Amino acid sequence: MNYHTPVLLNECIESLHIRANYDYADCTLGGGGHSEKIAELLGEGQKLHCFDRDIDAINAAKPRLAKFGEKIICHLEPFSNLERELAPETLGGVLYDLGVSSHQIDAGRGFSFAGNEVLDMRMDASSPKNAQDYLKEVSEENLAKAFRENSDLENSTRLAKHILQSISNEEKITAANLSTAVEEVYSKRKEDWNSLKARVFQAIRMEVNSEIQEIKKSIEAAVRCLKNSGRLCIITYHSKEARAVKDVLSVFEKNCLCKSNLPVCVCGGSNRKIKKVNKKTPSADELKKNSRSRSAVLRVYERV
Ligand SMILES: C[S@@+](CC[C@H](N)C(=O)[O-])C[C@H]1O[C@@H](n2cnc3c(N)ncnc32)[C@H](O)[C@@H]1O
Q1: Most buried by CB count within 10 Å: which residue of 29, 92, 101, 251?
Q2: Cβ(53) to ligand 1 under 6 A?
Q3: What angle do CA 99, 146, 144 make, to 5 degrees?
């Protein structure tokens, strides 16, 4: 079965501006679709560092990338470790294709609405807490906050209360339990069930995997790892991811970092490290062929 169909593939490759003598990083290896195309463009001595915290991704992509030999270096690590592996100003480009892969959604690990396995949702199966542990420990207030902040869900307090009540007697919490609880809260909105469930599952998944913290830490590191004129390409799939990316990068886009109440600049006014290049979305053809690309937005930045 196809592990994952890469999204905005040609747009990413064009935007990365792959040049001779530079190394690159694909921070979200997945099935290796983007990595394969990047590696095809690398010459003698150039390296592609591939990160994924899911062992399934590393195991699926390694055979696919084996033909590139020593050009490929796989890191089974969260991408927030970027600076542990790579030195400042060493990369010609960094790619992020955020979120989860089709394999993760289809693999019965709690990322999709159906299934009677323990609700897991961890990208890294060795991390200490899965979604079941999270739901058994989280307060009603914090769960409601996650629904509001991660997925803009209305009635977040009622939703959190009902979910926690309905699972309180379950020894094992499953995707099916969670789906039923969402249907009970939104019993009058049957036509919206799929989109509501998607947002509930997304909000919990983001907490279990500390997704926003990961994005912020790693993108800051990526800016520091880029050489002058190196490219940063980031695909997001929902507004909370996009907001996190824009918030982190807006600081690097400014020359002056002084507080707005200071009468004159005291920081030197030359802090700018990145400029926006452009933004791309999937073509009509890609949308027709791959429905999972529908909410994708590629943002391209350049180190200055
Ligand atoms: C959308 S998929 C990438 C698909 C890939 N571009 C391809 O063409 O097959 C996202 C991947 O990023 C990984 N991922 C998400 N957050 C991560 C993080 N903080 N650290 C490392 N890997 C992460 C997921 O495990 C998943 O395999």
Answers
A1: 29
A2: yes
A3: 150
